[in-house]
Every structure is written in C-alpha cells, then in structure tokens.
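User: Mind token order:
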Amino acid sequence: FIFLYFPETHGITFRIQISVKEVLDTDVLLKLLFHLPVNYPSTLPDISVNSDQLTRAQCMDVKDKLLEQAKKHLSEPMVHDLILWIQQHLKYVIKQSATVCNEKPTLSKGTSTEDGIWMLLLHLDHMRAKAKYVKTVEKWTSDLRLTGRLMFMGRIILILLQGDRSNIKEYLILQKTSKVDVDSSGKKCKEKMISVLCEIKVQSQHKRFQTFEVKEYSTLDELQKEFESAGLPALFSEFVPPLLK
C-alpha cells in the first residue's frame, strides 16, 4: 500500500491506499483517509473511504464498520489494526451491504437508517443573483430547521447543512426545482450546476452547528480552519482541494 502523511494544525492525516484481493472476483483498491486528532488515540479518528470499484453506499458501509472497530481499540494505537481488519473482512462487509440494499424497499419510514442528524455538503458553480439566492437559502434552512454554513471562498461556493435527513432531502428538492437564480439574460432559472459532494450521518466527533450562517473567506486556509473547527478535516481534504483544479 501507499502510506503518506502530512501534519495539520489539529493533528495528523494519513492517506493510505490498499489493494484487497479476490473481492467480488476482482481486486478492489481502497483509498482510506485517517485524520488523527491531537488527543488520539483517546479520541476516535475521522475516517474517509473511497474506491472506484465500490458504490458510495458501500464506501459508507466500510467507513461505518471501520468506526465500529475503532471503538474497540479506543485509547490504543489502531490504524494498523483497522487496515488489517478491513483487508480480511472487506468481502463480508460488501456482501452485507448488498443484502441491506436489496432489503431497502421494504423498510418503513423512520427506521434506524433514517435516525439521527445528517450532514450534506453541496458545491454550487456560481450565483448570478447572489443577494436573492442567499436570502432564499436562508429562508429554506430556517423553514426546514437546518443549521450549517453557506461558504464563499474566491470562486468556490459551498453549502454545508445539518439536520433531520427528511428535511435535508426536502432542501435538495427545493434547491433543484425552484427558480432560485437568473441566467445570462437575467431570466429566472432553476439551479442546474449543483453537485452533492457528500451526504453522511453526523458522527460523535463532528461538531453540531447551532445556527445557519453565511460566511466569506479570503484564503483557503481560513476555509480549512472552518472545517477543522467543526471536526471535519477529512471532509475538507477529500472534497475541497479538487475544486481548485
């Protein structure tokens, strides 16, 4: 595997790539990111999982299983043990994930899959009618009792939301179906240039936002510190730098 690390203001981040043999009759390349906070291992690491061979849902299941294992190693070094564990158990996690996916249509609303607070990270390409757009987003988040940030940094526009998953889904519907902006001719139009970067359940290490705020940052470092203060350094490292390319 490839093993890299770089120091950060609030701990250390490890980027690790491992190839797991004979999973679903093919090799699976897992891209793992572990952020170790300054009080690690007394505090669980923040983990991110990506793979071109797995679906986003499967990656989330792998992450959840790794966090479950991490809790068993609390207060002792665990990254190496977690890597060995997922190498040995990935095929079982994927098999279980497929079973859960097949059963999803029969689950009733309000089951454990929907419980708790969720978080959504969106990327907007542009805002032509910025003042009106911002006012609309503030109204939607207030009506749906969502907290978080609308963040501007240069050409980067991000919306980070926390709240009940049903309300987050309702927000997405509003965002995609309402005439929230104007086109190049000044005519009202729907948002067509939006990307859902991440939709995850809020974990214990993530800070809960108490309000929704609109903030502007003059540097990438300022934006990174916003994510770090919310316990989301791995989310920043995974999704924000690629937007600058």
Residues 79-103 form the longest helix (25 residues). The chain has two domains: 12-98, 117-243. The chain has a mean pLDDT of 80.
